[in-house]
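Researcher: We're teaching a course module on how sequence relates to structure. For the next exercise, students receive a sequence and then see the predicted structure as tokens, so they can try to spot secondary structure elements on their own. Here is the exercise chain.
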Amino acid sequence: MVELESITKVYKAGRTEVPALRGISCRIESGEMVAIMGPSGSGKSTLMNIIGCLDKPTSGQYRLEGVEVNKLGDNKLAEIRNKKIGFVFQSFNLLPRTTALANVELPLIYSGSGNRRQRALQALESVGLAHRIKHRPSELAGGEQQRVAIARALVNDPALILADEPTGNLDTTTSKELMLLFKQLNQQGITIVLVTHEPYIAAYTQRTIRIRDGQIEVSG
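Model: And here is the predicted structure for the students to work with:
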């Protein structure tokens, strides 16, 4: 699914170069559920952004399902982000004035897909929120908001879900409920990569990639 070879990322601040990734090489197989862990500033979010085609590496090769991402133009990258990858963020990133159903329909609108309402309903049903489709984010609990975000990530049937601290704003009980949901999705064949600071969250995954100072410290 994901193949990274000697990936580096260097940010420039004026004349100063700040290396975020220093030669990352790893593979994530189709159907895996993997955690990325590391202290603040270790490069894990940068790595997640590159895997999600939100950023490009300074050097190295990235292949997604055998396709060399580095060689793709902006339009093709946008298509991959919309159709192949589902994103779940710590802050939910829901539109506050629209219903749960409308939030989940958004990726389908961007991709020009038909049958949007039915597909969005099915996605919300899959995360246990069929009874909350008309509620706005402010009317939902934090765990429910994150379930809407997960439904939005699922609605285009992605092969890969990337979750950046998906339980960071939630209490322990709700976090465990969401991790069980992620495990169910993984058992259905979806590859899941998540960034977390919490060892008990990483314990739900099949293996952990630990990063420190832009390099892989442990993988397995």
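Model: If you want an answer key for the exercise: Residues 122 and 130 are 8 Å apart (CA to CA). The helical segments are 44-51, 74-83, 100-111, 116-126, 142-154, 172-187, 199-202.
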